[in-house]
Amino acid sequence: MAFHSGSEAAQKKSLEEVHGTVPVRFPRFWRRLFAFAGPAYIVSVGYMDPGNWATDIAGGSRFGYELLWVLLMSNIMALILQTLSARMGIVMGRDLAQACRETYSRSVSLALWLLCEVAIAACDLAEVIGTVIGLNLLFGLPLEIGIILTVFDTFLLLAIQKLGMRKMEAFILLLVVTVGACFFVEIIWSQPQWNGVLRGLLPSLSARPPFIFKDNGALYVAIGILGATVMPHNLYLHSALVQSRKIERTPEKMREACRFNLFDSFIALNAAFFVNAAILILAASAFYRHGQVVESIEQAYALLPQFLGASTASSLFAIALLSSGQSSTLTGTLAGQIVMEGFLHLRIQPWLRRLITRSIAVLPAMVTIYILGAHHLQDLLILSQVVLSLQLPFAIIPLIHITSDPRRMGNFASRQWLKIIAWLAAGIIIALNVYLVVSQIVSWSAALQAAGYSPLWIQLTAIPLAIACTCLLVWLLVQPIIAWRPSPSAVRSFPIQDTQAMMHGLTRPRYTKIGVAVENKPEDIQVLHHAVALAKSHHAELLIIHVVDGVGGQWYGKETSDRESQSDATYLDELVTALEKEQVRARGILRFGKPANELLQTIRDENIDFFILRSHGHGFWADRFLGHTIEIIRHKASIPVLAVR
């Protein structure tokens, strides 16, 4: 049984305008398969965006076919993680952002949201640069004009989105097919060495760290390939897109939906792998073979006719680049909408959301062109993909935890073998990122010292940021484990059809003694409202408890006779008298000492079966100084506890 937080009707639906709009109930197998096809193709666009081009061209021209295995490994990881994401959306009816908000505290959720926004901005930066370069190569538009156009081209794609989910999917599929066709032709022209391609699908060991790469340059490009392939925002996107299908909430239909979406992901992501591998193979065959290191997409465009012997090679390359940038733009819009609504419960107009994201992406591109020069756009592209890779663990770890949880996923929770593979993929990604961050900080510090500058600013910025991210990562790893330790019976999964039987077995609880803690303050009226209503409903005795926790009360106990204890005793008597006039059986109990201990002891002594107290709304540090009675009672009392704020 899949358990949700709160009633499903009360929850906001992911991508509400297209939620459940695509029918899938068809008698024929192929019609059903076609009905489910689509979400993975939209997601696959992110796996072949201009950021991939930059990393693939850099990897192919500098290292030949050597990094093909990184592409293959990334594609396998992507297939596993996207399958988990789709399964979450189908079974839980939640996207990853909504599930994270329900799993983690507000502060952790905000941190995850900020990191996800950084990833979306980095992805959008790659789309901006790719589109700008494509317009420049095809039509000769200046880069500055191209950047301005990219601000407005998003509105065209938003208009396409309004035509409906299936038409949007068809439009994106057309762009994907265009990219694939262009590279299929260019691969034939490049005549690659297929034995070298096959060798490149296996890692070659090195005698020095990190042992599977020639140097840190190869590692940097490999992590860029990883970040460009397994994109964090796609995990949020896929879990929302699968909910556009109108699926019956039965185990058989959801299992069928999971199978069809697995097939959809397999086809779509392998098509994306073909495109990425084609770009890298093309760069290796056309440039690396001739000793030509390509530093930019523009350089690749200019050199392709020379090395391939076909004048139209450049045009096909530019058409594919422009199609890639345009198709990726829409996925960024949808992902941004999903994470903002899921994490913040904040919904703004898609055009405004898109304009904000695109403006954030345009700024670094404009600064790079005006200050560093257009030839540095390639470096910015690769950097954006490395940033994406660094954000990956913060999406992967919650995804694996949530999809492995039987309380949420029921019988659809990940099996042991799948969890092992998923955690292995997460471990590889985290290990590569940690190595890159440490080596990069050391490299920056050494470069500054060699130039005669102090590396202090690195120590004051990069190192604290790295430590903060590491702490957040560790917390994401351990928090779901330590937050709840299930007994064997608690893990038992119930089939979904058992929910009706469970509802019929519900009985109304009866409370005979209701305890309420008061503090001799005006705010007591808040808890008394709830206590009186409950006592009248159950015809229960109301026990009004106050603990004298001053120095006299804690030291002398019942022997104290200071003004505070006398005032508290009078207060309880007045409350009891007033409640009896309201036809409520009430009794006052005055205790002395530490509030939490005394309240727990009163619950045991009086056999109280329901307890009410007031929450002050303190944060973590305020509780450390002012006390945290609620937490102690909540964990140690074996009866229902209501905290009123």
Distance between the termini: 32 Å
Number of helices: 27
CATH class (first level) name of the largest domain: Mainly Alpha
The CATH superfamily label of the largest domain reads Amino acid/polyamine transporter I
What's the Cα radius of gyration? 30 Å
Strand elements, count? 7
Mean pLDDT: 79
Stated plainly, the CATH topology of the largest domain is called: Amino acid/polyamine transporter I
Percent of sequence in beta strands: 5-15%
Please provide a written account of the structure.
- The protein has 2 domains: 465 residues, Amino acid/polyamine transporter I (Up-down Bundle), CATH 1.20.1740.10; 134 residues, Rossmann fold, CATH 3.40.50.620.
- Helix 22 links the parallel strand 3 and strand 4.
- The N terminus is likely disordered.
- It is built from 27 helices and 7 strands.
- The protein is mostly helical and 645 residues long.
- The chain is elongated and about 100 Å long.
